[in-house]
Design goal:
The complex is a heterodimer. By secondary structure, chain A is α+β, with helices and mostly antiparallel strands. Chain A has one domain (2-111): 2-Layer Sandwich (Alpha-Beta Plaits), CATH 3.30.70. Chain A is built from two helices and six strands, in the order E-H-E-E-E-E-H-E. In chain A, strands 2-5-1-6 form a four-stranded antiparallel beta sheet, covered by helices on one side. A two-stranded antiparallel ribbon of chain A has the order 3-4. In chain A, helix 1 (13-22) packs antiparallel against helix 2 (70-81). Chain A is elongated, with a radius of gyration of 17 Å. Chain A starts with a strand and ends in a 17-residue tail after the last strand. By secondary structure, chain B is mostly helical. Chain B has one domain (3-390): Ammonium transporter fold. Chain B has helices at 3-30, 36-63, 89-108, 118-140, 144-147, 156-174, 187-206, 214-242, 247-261, 272-287, 290-294, 302-320, 323-326, 341-370, 378-383, 385-390. The longest helix of chain B has 30 residues, at 341-370. Chain B is globular. The chains are: A alpha+beta, B mainly alpha.
Chain lengths: 112, 397
């Protein structure tokens, strides 16, 4: 089992979520996040004074999936979250040693 | 006071009370999210403490007798000589003026935002009310400055210039915030606050006629027009200078215009409110930048908006006062055939208010600094005054 974490542009969330559902991903966790990367920040002006906003709002998606579907899920995310412009985000994959569904105490693949 | 007048003054009093929560939102939205509740309570504290002080002694010292030169008396201590007999005009006036007394120290809170101990603020407000506000108010309304012929319809000198220069003194004694200024944490809150302020300002200005008459109606119109003209002027300057008009610019412009028309509301007519508003909007849009050049930390621009706006409006009375329009007994402005005498009286009244308010506010703050301390602990300032001073946070999931 693998944990897939994706940082995406907030306005892409609905599109990515629908694409993941269509690809039979059974659950995702969404968190509002802020961060910087190559995109850098932007400048806001209040009463003529400029403020640099260098942590930009992003959305973090997390999902635990079976090894067999990892590549397909990553492909779905990359395709649906991408705009081709700087700041599209990243996807990374982490090894997961154990998963338990709390309601039934099922483990492993059954718990996904 | 006739019954129509009584109704209007009572309604106006409630409108002016509503301005203090409006001001709290206007300031609170501009502050950091970790300090917003402290900002709100500094303002709400003024509508808790000041009505009590006003009833006990403030009104008596500020207005009884009306024509005393420098200070009133103890005759209306606890309002003991006031009864409900007759038309109720005196009681309505006491309530109305009490609302003014409440919002004036609240204006200062914007300059000291994010770093002042609440305990120090709790003592500062009563001291400032009696040492600075009451005497200046007395001199302008019924006292020696008013008797000389200076004009201040609803409190440009007595309230905005007075509180604005006090804000500068308070910010100077307090020193700069330890962390860099941040952009407003909630612009929608600022816009709501601005709307409430404008709404309440109709009571502030038109109610100051203390009657339901033509002067009240014209003051109402002037309040309407000057706010609009100043908001337009501010965003126009931004559009040309910075490339984009902004919400904070519109809000700041509206408030600057309302401040500027306050002293003039019952004395000017025709296009004058548009001119006064537009001039104040444009001037204040530049004045808020002075703090960066001069290096004082007036956190939410009380000096740039209230002091400068109030001064501009008060001085412009010297040009725009139009007694024939009102069938009034005040002097003509230069544009209506008057001499420069009125302008000189306006400058004198404001000069006196500026000197008195700046020096005594400075002294009050220095005394508080040396005794209870005025500056919040470093840790409280860095982690947020809401949690450190009030055990509350504004936003939960």
């Amino acid at each position: 089992m693998k944990l897939i974490t994706a940082i995406i542009k907030p306005f892409k969330l609905d599109e990515v979520k629908d694409a993941l559902k269509a690809a039979n991903v059974t659950g995702i966790t969404v968190t509002e996040a802020r961060g910087f990367g190559r995109q850098g920040g932007h400048v806001e002006t209040y009463r003529g004074a400029e403020y640099k906003v260098d942590l930009i709002p992003k959305v973090r998606l997390e999902m635990v999936v079976d090894d067999a579907v990892v590549d397909r899920v990553v492909e779905v995310i990359v395709k649906s979250a991408g705009t081709g412009k700087i700041g599209d985000g990243k996807v990374w994959i982490t090894e997961v040693s154990r998963v338990v569904r709390i309601r039934t105490a099922e483990e492993g693949r059954d718990a996904i | 006071m006739d019954s129509a007048g009584l109704v209007w003054v009572l309604v106006s009093s409630a409108l002016v009370l509503f301005m203090t929560p409006g001001l709290a939102f206007f300031y609170g939205g501009m502050d950091r999210r970790r300090n917003v509740l402290n900002m709100l309570l500094m303002n709400f504290y003024c509508i808790l403490a000041v009505p009590v002080l006003w009833m006990v002694l403030g009104y008596s010292l500020a207005q009884v007798p009306f024509d005393s030169d420098f200070i009133g008396s103890f005759d209306s201590f606890l309002l003991s000589d006031i009864t409900a007999a007759g038309d109720g005009g005196t009681l309505a006036t006491i309530a109305f003026l009490g609302m003014f007394a409440a919002i004036t120290p609240a204006l200062i809170s914007g300059a000291v935002a994010g770093r002042m101990k609440f305990s120090a603020w709790a003592i500062f407000v009563p001291l400032w009310l009696f040492i600075v506000y009451v005497p200046v108010f007395k001199w302008v309304y019924g006292g020696w400055l008013g008797q000389r012929g200076s004009l201040d319809f609803a409190g440009g000198t007595a309230i905005h210039v007075n509180a604005g220069i006090a804000a500068l003194a308070a910010a100077l004694v307090l020193g700069k915030r330890r962390v860099d200024p941040a952009p407003p944490h909630s612009m929608p809150l600022v816009m709501i606050g601005t709307g409430i302020l404008w709404f309440g300002w109709f009571g502030f200005n038109a109610g100051s006629a203390l009657a339901a008459n033509g002067q009240a109606a014209q003051a109402f119109m002037n309040t309407f027009l000057a706010g609009a003209a100043a908001g337009l002027a501010w965003i126009l300057v931004e559009w040309v200078r910075d490339g984009r008009p902004s919400n904070l610019g519109a809000a700041s412009g509206i408030v600057a215009g309302l401040v500027a028309i306050t002293p003039a509301a019952g004395y000017v007519s025709g296009g004058a409110p548009l001119a006064i508003g537009a001039i104040a909007g444009a001037v204040c849009c530049y004045a808020v930048r002075l703090k960066t050049k001069l290096g004082y930390d007036d956190a939410l621009d009380v000096v740039g908006v209230h002091f400068v706006g109030g001064l501009v409006g008060s001085l412009l009375i010297g040009f725009f006062a139009n007694p024939s329009f009102f069938e009034g007994s005040f002097s003509e402005g230069i544009f209506y055939g008057g001499s420069a005498d009125l302008l000189i009286e306006q400058a004198l009244a404001n000069g006196v208010a500026i000197v008195w308010s700046f020096i005594l506010t400075w002294v009050i703050m220095k005394v508080l600094a040396a005794t209870v301390g005025v500056r919040a602990e470093e840790q409280a300032e860095l982690t947020g005054l809401d949690l450190a001073l009030h055990s509350e946070t504004a936003y939960h999931d």
